[in-house]
Specification:
The protein is an all-alpha fold. About 60% of the residues lie in helices and about 0% in strands. It has helices at about 15-20, 25-35, 40-50, 55-65. It is globular, with a radius of gyration of 11 Å. The two termini are about 15 Å apart. The model has no long low-confidence stretch (mean pLDDT about 80).
């Protein structure tokens, strides 16, 4: 699948930041985004680890550069 210019389904930056602020939507959107990119292992790791530190890092990165963290880019 082609790389999108924005995370969270190609939505605008403001909408993505709003989704990233809410922990459960950030978790779900992060998992779905990684599965859409074809990164199965990264999606599973987000499912297991995405509720704590990854959420905070994703929130900061979404505000700063509009993209979520790429824990595994394999």
């Amino acid at each position: 699948m082609a790389k999108s210019s924005k995370d969270y389904f190609g939505l605008g930056r403001l909408v993505s930041i709003i989704l990233a602020i809410i922990p459960i939507t950030a978790l779900i959107c992060g998992i779905v985004t990684r599965f859409q990119e074809g990164k199965i292992l990264a999606g599973v790791l987000r499912l297991v680890l995405g509720w704590n530190l990854i959420w905070l890092v994703d929130l900061i990165l979404m505000i700063v550069n509009g993209r979520i963290m790429r824990l595994l880019n394999v």
